[in-house]
Design a protein that fits this description.
oxidoreductase activity, SDR_fam, single chain, Rossmann fold, NAD(P)-bd_dom_sf, alpha/beta, Sc_DH/Rdtase_CS
Length: 254
């Protein structure tokens, strides 16, 4: 799945799934541009990629600043072109419909939907001549409602529909737009949670058909497929990486 000669932008590339995606695309020859808000974390990821022989640059960027984000994409494209955009940055908000403020609800959409929309729009402008691949990282929460996460679940569901819509509008430009929906993934944040409550971690794993959580690299492998020419006839797809969880019929055994 060689990506030699291709340029990719990965948002939220300083940690977890984004970090794994950046490393994977770089290992296949892509020049990766990773952006996030924390410069020190970005540089640590970049150093690992360089040590492994990859090509990388960093951009300190808050994707919620949509004008600045769009300008960054245009700047990268002006220097290197743009073949791949991975919209991975996310805001994970908690709160039920009864309790979450409208402001908190909207914050999920500001990052998970508005920023992705702005990123896709900017990418489409610079990909329109030569085509490209856009991969949006959604969540199992976008397919299945999660009580207590009203804003997050709703925004990730909106992202899936936006992905399908964009795929139809860009198919004639040879721009493919797809989504990946991770289930429970062993990111640093998840590891910290499990260390604080090991029994909760065991319960989560037991509730997954494959009886374990996924690894960031397993999400990155699917993103690589969608970014590469191996998926040249795939657009508008939503690929779960969740150990079968989204297909499970929940039954109360109590």
């Amino acid at each position: 799945m060689s990506l030699t000669g291709k340029t990719s932008i990965i948002t939220g590339g300083s940690d977890g799934i984004g970090r794994a995606i950046a490393a994977k695309l770089a290992s296949e020859g892509a020049h990766v541009v990773i952006c996030a808000r924390n410069a020190d974390k970005l540089e640590a990821v970049a150093e690992d990629i360089r040590t492994a022989g990859g090509s990388v640059e960093t951009r300190v960027q808050d994707v919620a600043d949509t004008e600045s984000f769009a300008a960054m994409i245009a700047d990268v494209a002006a220097s290197n072109g743009l073949d791949i955009l991975v919209n991975n940055a996310a805001h994970v908000g908690f709160g039920s419909v009864a309790d979450a403020s409208l402001e908190d609800f909207r914050e999920n959409f500001r990052v998970n939907v508005d920023a992705t929309y702005a990123g896709m729009q900017a990418a489409i402008k610079v990909m329109s001549n030569n085509g490209g691949s856009i991969v949006n990282i959604s969540s199992i929460n976008g397919d299945r409602a999660m009580p207590g996460m009203a804003g997050y679940s709703s925004s990730k569901a909106a992202l899936l529909h936006l992905t399908r819509l964009a795929s139809m509008e860009t198919a004639g430009l040879n721009i493919r737009v797809n989504a990946v929906t991770p289930g429970p993934i062993m990111t640093p944040g998840t590891e910290a949670f499990i260390q604080s409550d090991p029994k909760a971690g065991e319960a989560i794993a037991a509730g997954i058909p494959m009886q374990r959580m996924g690894m960031p690299e397993e999400v990155a492998n699917v993103v690589l497929f969608l970014a590469s020419d191996m998926s040249s006839y795939v657009t508008g797809a939503n690929i779960p990486v969740d150990g079968g969880k989204a297909n499970e019929l929940a039954v109360n055994q109590g």
